[in-house]
Design a protein that fits this description.
Blueprint (H helix, E strand, L loop, with lengths): L2 H34 L9 H23 L4 H18 L1 H7 L9 H13 L1 H12 L3 H19 L2 H8 L5 H35 L1
């Protein structure tokens, strides 16, 4: 087999493993629900902590991507900042209790810093973006964002659930839809980070 064929097969194997991982994360939620019952999606519960772990892992991977190689040095920091924002959002109840006045909303600072950092280094960020758009991790990240925002947030939106079910008390149903879909989306975000990590690993070797 040629090097190109080996690389192609290895890429296909990684994609298959990512898909298998999504099944694994879904079945893990089933197992957690079998034990925790109605407390599965409670604030500071096991599943919320699992989501937090997913986001922190993605954040760490993006930082490794940034500091191990030059290909995605700027983008790695930007993506890590966005993951840090999402992690703070998952801890909204904690920060609302411990951060005066603004609560968890202080996390928007991560977005402001990420945008400011990208604009300050726009020339290199632009070059990295053009490479990223051709990279296998780009469609994976698009998939993750689609799952996390349009699917999890919009389908799990309270007014939508109320209109469909015609009941007023839909808190548990809303949480079930939103949180379970988010968990899968965060896992795919990790997969995207792994793809970038693998690319930086190859560049580092060279």
């Amino acid at each position: 087999m040629t090097d190109t064929e080996k690389s192609t097969i290895f890429t296909a194997v990684r994609q298959f493993l990512y898909c298998a991982g999504c099944f694994g994360v879904t079945f893990l939620q089933h197992a957690i629900a079998a034990v925790c019952k109605e407390k599965t999606f409670d604030e500071n519960g096991i599943l919320e902590n699992f989501q937090l772990g997913e986001l922190l892992l993605a954040c760490c991977l993006f930082l490794v991507v940034s500091f191990r190689g030059r290909t995605f040095h700027k983008l790695g920091i930007v993506f890590a900042s966005l993951c840090a924002f999402a992690a703070c959002r998952e801890l909204d109840s904690f920060f609302d209790d411990h951060v005066p006045f603004i609560g968890w909303k202080f996390a928007f600072l991560f977005i402001v810093l990420a945008i400011g950092y990208a604009m300050k280094n726009w020339r290199q960020t632009r070059e990295e973006l053009l490479i990223f758009f051709r990279h296998p991790s780009f469609p994976m990240m698009c998939c993750a964002i689609t799952i996390i925002i349009p699917l999890a947030q919009c389908i799990g939106h309270r007014s939508f659930v109320v209109n469909v079910l015609q009941v007023d008390h839909v808190g548990s149903i809303k949480e079930f839809i939103e949180e379970s879909i988010e968990t899968a989306g965060y896992f795919i975000l990790i997969c995207s980070a792994i793809e970038l990590f693998w690319n930086s690993r190859l560049s580092f070797k060279k």
